[in-house]
Specification:
With 762 residues, the chain is of the alpha+beta class. The chain has 15 helices and 36 strands. The termini are far apart.
Length: 762
C-alpha cells in the first residue's frame, strides 16, 4: 500500500534551488563510468591516518520514486576548513549513470522523500525565509526552484492515492508551543521515532529562543528579585536537560493533555477532516487499500490520556516492586474504524505492545509487530481484520523484525538485525517460508523500493567499505518470487579514497561464553600485516550496553589498524541483534558474565601467534567506558586503557544524567530502592586496585554520562599516582565520536593512536 513518508520538523527552513536534470554528469559529479564499474576497496595502499577522516563521504536516507526511475539520498561531506559537516540531497537514475546534486550547496538539506504520485521531492532543510523545515522540488516539470507546499498532507494513503490519513492534536496551542515542536524532532525528549527506513536523519540543529529558561516555571515558589537582572535557569520538574539539546524549559502553565485524533485530507489543498473525537490518543493510523477503513493503535482500555498519565505519574513515585513492575501488561491494542468515523472495533488484544501496522493488498489482514514484554522478542504477526487468532510469522526465530511491510504480490518484506549484520527478508504468509533476499557480511543503512516492488535501493557498508548506494531486483523473474538478484552499485563517492587507503578487514570468530551462549568476535589485522610478526592489540568495548558492533566500516577500528595495532572487538551478552534473551541476559548482572565474555575473547586473541599478549590495551565509550573502568579495577592484564564517556559512580550519575530510566530498569529501581547494586557496580568503589595508565576523554556538554563522573575517576587515579591524562572537549555532547565537531573528532582519533602507541609499542 502506498504511504507518504514521515516529514520531519527541524529548526529552520531554507531557500530554493533548481534541481539539476538527469543527464550527462556535471563537472562536480562522479562519472558514469566510475559509478558503473567502481572497483572494490583495495587490499594494497597506504595506512589510514586521522586526517583521512575529512575525506569520507557518508550516504543515508534513500528514497525511490514511485515509478522506480530514480533514487534520491542524502550525501554528507566534511568541510574541513570550516570545521563542519555539509549535507545535500542527490539523485541517481536506477538504470545507472551519474548521481546529480539536487539541492543548493549553500544550505543544509537532508532526508529526501517522494510524494505518492511522484510529483514532488520533499526534503528537510534549514533555509531562511520559510515556514518550518520542509521544502519541495517539482519532479513533473523541468527545472524550478525549491518551494514550500502549503497544506500538503503527510500520512498513510490508499491505493488510489486520493487522500492521506494521519493523526494530530485538534488544537495546537493545547500541546504547548515548544513542547509540541520538540515532539516532532527525532531524538528529542518525547520526540518522534526515527523513520521506518531504518536510517534516522542527521541530528537536527536545535536552540531555545532567548529568555525561556530564566522565567519561573509553572509551580515555582520563588521568582527573580529583578527579572531583568536574572539570567540563570529555574526548574521544578524533570526532564530539565537532554543530551544534544542542553537544558530544557519546564512548563509555563498547567499541563494540558491533547489526545491525538485521526484526520483525513485530500491532495488538492483542501482542509483536513477530523474523523475521531475521543479523550484517548490514536497512533499509527493506517488506511486500508480501498480507503474505507483505518487501523490504529490505542490504549488497550481506551482510557483518556489524562488517566493514563495520572497512573504513570503515580507509579513513578513508588519504589520498585517486582510483583507489580515485572507483571505482564497489555498496554496497547489494535482497532479499526470506518473512514467516516463511528465506534472503533478492537481487532487484536495481545499482551504488551503492538506497532508497525500495514494492511494486506486485499485489505483482509493486518500485519504488525508485537512485543509481549520488554525483555521478550518482538514478533511479526498477521491477523484477519475480522478477528480470530493472530498468526506468528517469526515463531521460534532467534532474531527480531525491525520493519515490515506487505509487497504488492502478498509477500512481506522485512528488515532485521542478524547479529552484527542486517538483512532484508521476504516472508510468505501462507507457507511461513522466510527467505533472505538481500544479505551478506554487511550492514544496510536504509532501503526504499518502487511502487511495484520490483526493485529495492539500499545504502550498504561493510568492514572495509564506507557507505554507497546499491540497487537490486526484488523480483527479477517477474514470477512473484522475490530473489534480490542483479545487485549493482549506483554510486562511487568513496572510490577515490578507497583506491588510496588500504582498509583493514576483520576475521570473524565465535566462542561459547558462560552458560553456553554463543558470542561473536572479530580480530582486525593492522595495515601492512606480516605473518610471523607479533603485534600489540587493543580490545574495543561498545556502548549501550544494548547496542552492537556491526559488520560495517568504523573509523575507530581503521584508525588503530592504520597505526599498526591489532583490533579485537566483540558483541558480548547484553548486545543487541541476537534476540531479546541475549540482550537482556545482563539485567541486574552488569559486569558479571558480560565481563567474562570480554576476558574470554581476550584470552582467545592472546593465544594467537601474531598477538603480543604483553602489549594489550582496552578502550570503550559510554557503557564501554564504564566497562573499561571496571576492567582496569579488576585486572592488570592490560597495559594501557582509554575510558571514553565513562561512569564511575552510579549514585552521582543517576543524579546528573538525562537517562535515569536505564538503571531504574536494569538495576531494578532507583539508588535508594536498591543501594547495594548501585554501590557494588560503581567502579569508584574499586579504584584503589587500578594500576593501568588511563587516557580519559569527556565532552563538557554530555548530559548522558556527565563529566562529574570522569572528574571523580581522574582525581582518584591522579591522587594514587596512576598515569592518567584527562582531555575535555568543549561544545561537545555524548555524541562527540559520531557527530561532534570535525576538528575535535579527529583530534580524539589522534590521541587514541598516541596513547596506545606510547604504552603498547616496544
Amino acid at each position: 500500500m502506498p504511504r507518504l513518508p514521515f516529514l520531519l520538523f527541524l529548526a529552520a527552513p531554507l531557500t530554493a534551488q533548481n534541481p539539476a536534470p538527469i543527464g550527462p554528469p556535471a563537472p562536480d559529479t562522479p562519472s558514469a563510468a566510475a559509478v558503473s564499474n567502481a572497483p572494490a576497496p583495495r587490499a594494497s595502499g597506504r595506512a589510514f591516518t586521522p586526517g583521512d577522516w575529512y575525506k569520507l563521504t557518508t550516504l543515508s536516507t534513500p528514497a525511490m520514486s514511485p515509478d522506480g526511475k530514480m533514487v534520491a539520498f542524502t550525501v554528507t561531506t566534511i568541510v574541513e576548513r570550516e570545521n563542519k559537516r555539509h549535507s545535500e540531497v542527490w539523485a541517481v537514475p536506477t538504470s545507472g549513470g551519474a548521481p546529480v546534486r539536487y539541492t543548493s550547496p549553500g544550505y543544509e538539506s537532508t532526508s529526501p522523500r517522494f510524494s505518492p504520485d511522484g510529483k514532488y521531492l520533499f526534503f528537510t532543510s534549514t533555509r531562511p525565509g520559510g515556514r518550518g523545515a520542509t521544502w519541495a522540488l517539482r519532479m513533473d516539470q523541468p527545472g524550478g526552484e525549491a518551494t514550500q507546499v502549503d497544506n500538503y498532507p503527510v500520512g498513510s494513503v490508499p491505493k488510489d492515492r486520493s487522500f492521506a490519513v494521519f493523526t494530530d492534536v485538534v488544537d495546537s496551542s493545547a500541546a504547548g508551543g515548544l513542547a509540541r515542536a520538540m515532539q516532532n524532532v527525532p531524538g528529542a525528549p518525547g520526540g518522534a521515532r526515527p523513520s521506518s527506513s531504518g536510517s534516522p536523519p542527521l541530528p537536527p540543529s536545535f536552540s531555545l529562543p532567548p529568555g525561556v529558561l530564566n522565567v519561573p516555571p509553572f509551580g515555582a515558589i520563588t521568582k527573580p528579585q529583578e527579572a531583568a537582572r536574572f539570567d540563570g535557569r529555574q526548574f521544578v520538574d524533570v526532564p530539565y536537560k537532554a543530551n544534544g539539546f542542553g537544558f530544557l524549559p519546564n512548563a509555563r502553565s498547567a499541563r494540558a493533555i491533547a489526545p491525538r485524533q485521526i484526520f483525513t485530507q485530500k491532495f488538492d489543498s483542501s482542509k483536513r477532516v477530523q474523523v475521531t473525537n475521543a479523550r484517548y490518543s490514536h497512533r499509527e493510523a493506517t488506511v486500508s487499500p480501498d480507503g474505507k477503513w483505518i487501523a490504529f493503535v490505542a490504549d488497550a482500555q481506551l482510557r483518556p490520556d489524562s488517566v493514563v498519565q495520572q497512573v504513570a505519574d503515580s507509579l513513578a513515585k513508588l519504589p520498585y516492586d517486582a510483583l507489580r513492575d515485572e507483571a505482564p501488561r497489555n498496554d496497547r491494542d489494535i482497532f479499526v474504524i470506518s473512514i467516516s468515523g463511528g465506534t472503533p472495533r478492537r481487532v487484536a488484544s495481545l499482551q504488551g505492545d503492538e506497532s508497525g501496522l500495514d494492511w494486506s493488498p486485499d485489505g483482509k489482514k493486518i500485519l504488525f509487530v508485537s512485543r509481549a514484554e520488554r525483555t521478550k522478542n518482538a514478533r511479526l504477526m498477521l491477523m484477519d481484520v475480522s478477528g480470530g487468532a493472530p498468526q506468528n510469522l517469526t515463531n521460534g526465530w532467534q532474531y527480531e523484525p525491525a520493519f515490515a511491510e506487505f509487497l504488492p504480490g502478498g509477500d512481506v518484506l522485512m528488515s532485521a538485525e542478524i547479529g552484527a549484520r542486517t538483512a532484508l527478508f521476504t516472508v510468505n504468509p501462507k507457507s511461513g517460508q522466510m527467505r533472505e533476499t538481500i544479505g551478506g557480511r554487511r550492514v544496510i543503512r536504509g532501503y526504499a523500493h518502487n511502487e511495484k516492488a520490483t526493485q529495492v535501493a539500499f545504502i550498504v557498508t561493510s568492514v572495509n567499505s564506507p557507505t554507497e548506494l546499491h540497487i537490486a531486483d526484488l523480483d527479477s523473474r517477474k514470477d512473484g518470487k522475490y530473489d534480490g538478484k542483479n545487485e549493482r552499485k549506483l554510486t562511487a563517492f568513496n572510490d577515490t579514497l578507497n583506491a588510496e587507503i588500504a582498509w583493514s578487514d576483520a576475521e570473524k570468530f565465535a566462542f561459547q561464553g558462560v552458560g553456553g551462549l554463543t558470542v561473536e568476535g572479530w580480530v582486525m589485522k593492522p595495515v601492512g600485516y606480516q605473518p610471523g610478526k607479533k603485534y600489540p592489540l587493543v580490545l574495543y568495548i561498545h556502548g549501550g550496553p544494548h547496542s552492537r558492533y556491526e559488520e560495517a566500516w568504523f573509523d575507530e577500528f581503521q584508525n588503530l589498524a592504520g597505526a599498526g595495532f591489532m583490533v579485537l572487538y566483540t558483541n558480548p551478552r547484553g548486545s543487541s541483534g541476537s534476540g531479546a534473551e541475549f540482550t537482556f541476559s545482563t539485567r541486574g548482572r552488569w559486569f558479571a558474565e558480560d565481563y567474562q565474555d570480554l576476558m574470554q575473547a581476550s584470552d582467545i586473541a592472546a593465544k594467537r601467534p601474531d598477538v603480543d599478549s604483553t602489549r594489550m590495551g582496552v578502550t570503550g565509550g559510554s557503557y564501554g567506558g564504564v566497562m573499561t573502568a571496571w576492567v582496569t579495577s579488576h585486572t592488570n592484564r592490560f597495559k594501557a586503557a582509554e575510558a571514553d564517556r565513562m561512569i564511575s559512580n552510579w549514585w552521582s550519575w543517576y543524579g546528573a544524567s538525562d537517562a535515569q530510566m536505564l538503571t531504574e530498569f536494569e538495576f531494578f529501581g532507583r539508588p535508594w530502592d536498591n543501594p547495594a547494586m548501585y554501590d557494588s557496580l560503581s567502579p569508584i568503589r574499586y579504584v584503589n586496585r587500578v594500576k593501568t595508565p588511563t587516557l580519559m576523554v569527556q565532552s563538557e556538554e554530555d548530559h548522558r554520562t556527565p563529566i562529574n563522573d570522569a572528574e571523580q575517576w581522574f582525581m582518584a587515579l591522579r591522587k594514587r599516582g596512576v598515569p592518567v591524562e584527562f582531555v575535555r572537549y568543549p561544545r561537545s555532547t555524548h555524541d562527540l565520536s559520531r557527530t561532534g565537531e570535525p576538528w575535535l573528532l579527529v583530534d580524539r582519533l589522534g590521541r587514541l593512536r598516541q596513547w596506545f602507541g606510547y604504552w603498547l609499542k616496544p
